Amino acid sequence: HVQLVESGGGSVQAGGSLRLSCAVSSSTALSDLCLAWFRQAPGKEREGVAVRDRFRRKIYADSVRGRFTISEDSANNTFDLQMNSLKPEDTAMYYCATGPYGCSWNVLAYTNWGQGTQVTVS
To answer: Between the CA of residue 45 and those of 48, 92, 120, what are the distances in Å?
Structure first.
């Protein structure tokens, strides 16, 4: 089975930081997967935030580059999103996702999704 579980969401004041974690249960090693974080605000489309592709390249949305960092801990089958200098516009439900190939911003490229964790920045 494949299961992803996010944690670390919450409420924070503007300028603060949060670290989201995604615990992955999968028969495929993280090194062989696209790892991604998406977010979705009410009434808006789900958008890509950060991607780690299978070549270990990290790609960020323009809106978060320099503030957010995606990282992985293969030994513990987790990957994280460190979010610094948070802004009210970062408020959204955040989802971790994995996929076998592509590693794009297209949600359809990802076959497995977490349930989401809410981030609220005031």
So the answer is: 10, 11, 17
